[in-house]
Design goal:
- This protein has 200 residues and is an alpha+beta fold.
- The protein has a domain of 125 residues: Sandwich (Jelly Rolls).
- The strands form 3 sheets. It has a 4-stranded antiparallel beta sheet. Strands 8-7-4-10 form a 4-stranded mixed beta sheet, with no helix packed on it. Strands 1-2 form a two-stranded antiparallel ribbon.
- A hairpin with a 2-residue loop joins strand 1 and strand 2.
- The longest helix is centred in the first third of the chain and has 27 residues.
- It is globular, with a radius of gyration of 22 Å.
Length: 200
C-alpha cells in the first residue's frame, strides 16, 4: 500500500490530472464571472441580473446566476439589486455618511414588500447597537415636507433622523435591495432606484 501511494505521489499522470482539475475549476470561475458581468445591468450604482431563473437560460447563465445569487427567485417574483459603490463610484465605507433619497411617490412599487439590507463585503450582516438590520415598507419612515423620503446610511446615528437610519458596518460594506412581487414599472425597467449619495 505504501509503495502504491509513493508511486501515485510521484506519478506524472496523477499530477497532470490534479493540475488539469485545478485549471478547469479556475477556468469555470473565470467563465462564470464573465457571463455574470454580461447579463448584469447597472443603473445608478445598483446592479441586477434580470435573467436568473428564467426558462431557456443556457447552462452558463444558470451557473453564473447560481454563483451570484444562490436560490434566487425569478425577477417577476423578487427583484434583487446590489450596490458596492456610491454615486461617485467610490466603495461604500462606514467611515462616510450616505443618503438614499426617494422623491415623493417614488418608493419601489410592489404587491408584497421591499427591504434594504447592509452587509459586510462577504454578504454577512454585522451586529449594531440599534439591532436594526434592514429597513423597508413596513418601517415607520418619516417623510420630508414635500413627501419625499430620505434613508440615512451610516455607522453612527444621524442626529434628528434616527427614525430613517439604517446602521452600516464600520468598514467597507455592500447593500442589497429586494422588492417582492415588483410592480410593472420595475418589470418594464421604467422605475430605477436612486443613486447612493454622500450626505453633506
Amino acid at each position: 500500500m505504501a509503495n502504491a501511494l509513493a508511486w501515485l505521489s510521484q506519478s506524472g499522470v496523477v499530477q497532470g490530472l490534479l493540475l488539469g482539475a485545478v485549471l478547469a475549476f479556475l477556468t469555470a470561475i473565470l467563465v462564470m464571472n464573465a457571463v455574470g458581468r454580461a447579463v448584469t445591468s447597472t443603473v445608478n450604482g445598483w446592479s441586477a441580473i434580470r435573467k436568473c431563473g428564467q426558462p431557456g437560460n443556457g447552462v452558463l447563465v444558470r451557473a453564473a446566476c447560481a454563483k451570484a445569487l444562490p436560490l434566487v427567485n425569478v425577477f417577476e417574483e423578487a427583484a434583487y439589486w446590489t450596490a458596492t459603490a456610491d454615486s461617485s463610484r467610490e466603495a461604500l465605507s462606514g467611515g462616510r455618511r450616505y443618503l438614499l433619497h426617494f422623491p415623493a411617490g417614488q418608493l419601489p412599487p410592489h404587491d408584497a414588500f421591499w427591504s434594504l439590507t447592509p452587509t459586510d463585503t462577504a454578504g454577512y450582516m454585522v451586529d449594531n447597537p440599534a439591532h436594526r438590520y434592514s429597513i423597508g415598507d413596513r418601517s415607520p419612515l418619516a417623510q420630508n415636507a414635500d413627501g419625499s423620503v430620505d434613508i440615512y446610511l451610516q455607522h453612527e446615528p444621524p442626529s434628528g433622523h434616527e427614525q430613517n437610519w439604517l446602521p452600516v458596518p464600520s468598514g467597507k460594506f455592500k447593500l442589497m435591495f429586494r422588492v417582492y412581487l415588483p410592480g410593472e414599472a420595475i418589470l418594464d425597467g421604467t422605475y430605477q432606484l436612486p443613486g447612493i449619495v454622500r450626505a453633506q
